[in-house]
Amino acid sequence: MPEILALKINNSYHKQISAKELYEATRRSWKLSKTRASKVRTVLSLAEGRVVEVYTVESWYPSSDVGRLEFSGSVADHHTRAIWLDRPSKEIARNTGPVRYIKVD
Questions:
Q1: Which of 46, 56, 63, 91 could cross-link to 68 by cystine, CB 3.0-4.6 Å?
Q2: pLDDT score at 103
Q3: pLDDT per residue over 37-86, tens digit each?
Q4: C-beta pairs of 23-28 under 8 Å, 24+ apart in sequence
Q5: Are 60 and 27 in contact (CB under 8 A)?
Q6: Other CB atoms within 10 A of residue 79 CB
Q7: Is the pLDDT of residue 9 over 80?
Q8: Domain-by-domain residue ranges, the chain?
């Protein structure tokens, strides 16, 4: 079953964040299972209580921070963004940690 990964970036987010800064804050240095992350193709960026962006993952690889992973990718297609963008994060990531896997059918 495919999963979506929701990542909380509250500490890096600010109102005037550029698209490039948002992407960098979302894609970098997460403590994840390599096996599980390798199956994720959609990442939600969460900040200020909502989904602020949606990315399609092209690949996962080791971060320069030991024991962490990061992805390369791009902003998701219009359809995928329409489903997730601006949704309240409390509907998505009820846990208190920075990482949440979401099973999708």
A1: 63
A2: 84
A3: 999 999 999 999 999 999 999 999 999 999 999 999 999 999 999 999 99
A4: 23/53, 23/55, 23/75, 26/53, 26/55, 27/55, 27/70, 27/71, 27/72, 27/73, 28/63, 28/70
A5: no
A6: 7
A7: yes
A8: 1-67+79-84
